Amino acid sequence: MATPAARAVDSWHGYLQRAAAGPTDEVAAALDAMLSDAVVFRSPVVFTPQVGRELTRTYLLAALATLNAPEAGFRYVREVIGDRDAVLEFETTLDGKLVHGVDLIAVDEDARIVDFTVMVRPLQGVQAIHATMGAMLATMSSATGGRASSDMEGGLVKWHAEIDPRTVSFAEGRREWV
Predict the structure, then answer these.
(1) How many domains does the chain have?
(2) 45-81, pLDDT tens digit by residue?
(3) Is cis: bond before 122, omega within 30 of 0?
(4) Torsions phi, psi of 40, nearest 5?
(5) Lowest mean pLDDT, pick from 34-48, 69-83, 127-141
(6) In which domain, by residue range, is 52 found?
(7) DSSP string spanning 115-131?
(8) What is the number of alpha carbons within 13 Å of residue 60 lying toward its C-beta?
(9) Comparing C-alpha atoms, which of 95, 98, 169 is closest to residue 128?
(10) Residue 171 placed within a domain
(11) Which of 138, 139, 16 is nearest to 79 (CA)?
(12) pTM here?
């Protein structure tokens, strides 16, 4: 029998395949089903952890639109899977820069994600993600009537997206929010 982490990783890979065909409301709903209500998301470019399904969904959708675009060549190159934890090493290209990172995923007994941490290198990759995701979050926020703001904390920019996820929909075949 597969461990909760192995089941979650299988679901995650299935989700990424569906998301690669283009963002839809159904794809966003599938992501919701994988996330615990109290999931915590830790971004490489956000100072504070983002707590809750809505914020995590927002950041993951922005990250996928940024890192998993067809021209980026996103791929997992190695996986280490335990009982309740998984490490998924990835590579992608952003603005002509190779980005190398890991997704650290912790799950509950029902294989729902309770913690999702993304670590990225090199510095130029982090900077490219910061700029691209900041723009994506601002676009998502303005398209949904929310707001995106930034404030400096320890030299890092913290993005706040106040978005009602029930009002978000995708344009067919486009990787941006409308």
Answers:
(1) 1
(2) 878 899 999 989 888 887 877 777 777 788 999 999 9
(3) yes
(4) -115, 130
(5) 127-141
(6) 4-164
(7) EEEEEEESHHHHHHHHH
(8) 30
(9) 95
(10) no
(11) 16
(12) 0.75
